[in-house]
Design brief:
This protein is an alpha/beta fold and 224 residues long. It is built from 9 helices and 7 strands. It has a 7-stranded mixed β-sheet with strand order 3-2-1-4-5-7-6, with helices on both faces. β1, α5 and β2 form a beta-alpha-beta unit. The chain starts with a helix and ends in a 6-residue tail after the last helix.
Length: 224
């Protein structure tokens, strides 16, 4: 068997695994297993995943309260917690207690004291309403079977004018397209602020409108 055929078989297997995982995720929550957390923490993987670029697109600022859904071992949330200092706070909600344990251990190693964690389902109300400036979901939307419920909780958690920031990358088996994210977000009441990147790797930022903006957006164009 020549090298080309071997590579072709490997690619075919990866594609089948990817498609199978995507199909199964529609029926059941299938987040990245805790056993693979070491892979997410690898510096090379973080560079390939564009950690710095993603954080620049999210734009955490000092004094903000930032919530990440599915933070895993803290690839984004740990540096984001540092960026919102002084005066800011970071919170991570993950359905896997093992990931939360790794996140807390890493925060302790790096001296991050403004970060708290919650073991829980993204479709449930774990935080007070209108209490965050930014909610982040990075390559996790496709892991949640009831995505509408998750977007509802994101909307609930954000302050008026707050940002829901969603990052997707084509290599992820749970990849969601820009059009899918816009449909889910706008159905809940979010307004698209910006999409940065390309279709295969992008960050989409949505705004929770304040009362005046919401009223204006519902008026006919000739009445504005």
């Amino acid at each position: 068997m020549n090298i080309f055929l071997i590579l072709l078989l490997i690619v075919a297997m990866l594609v089948l695994v990817n498609l199978g995982w995507r199909w199964a995720s529609r029926k059941k929550s299938l987040p990245c297993p805790t056993a693979f957390a070491w892979f997410l923490e690898n510096p090379l993987v973080q560079r390939l995943n564009g950690t710095r670029t993603t954080l620049e697109r999210i734009g955490p600022r000092p004094g903000q309260r930032i919530l990440e859904i599915g933070p895993g071992p803290g690839r984004l949330l740990i540096p984001a917690a540092k960026m919102v200092q002084p005066g800011g706070e970071a919170v991570g909600i993950d359905i896997q207690s093992g990931m939360i344990d790794r996140l807390k251990a890493r925060a302790e190693r790096e001296g991050v004291t403004n970060l708290t964690t919650i073991v829980g389902d993204a479709t449930q109300p774990h935080v007070p309403a209108a209490s965050f400036d930014v909610v982040v979901m990075c390559t996790v939307v496709g892991e949640i079977p009831d995505r509408a419920a998750a977007f509802k909780q994101c909307y609930r958690a954000l302050k008026a004018g707050g940002i829901l920031s969603i990052t997707e990358m084509i290599g992820d088996p749970h990849y969601q397209s820009q059009s899918t994210l816009r449909r889910l977000a706008e159905h809940e009441g979010f307004q698209l602020q910006s999409i940065r990147g390309h279709w295969w790797s992008f960050t989409a930022n949505f705004t929770k409108p304040d009362a005046s903006t919401a009223v204006l957006s519902q008026q006919p164009a000739e009445a504005r």
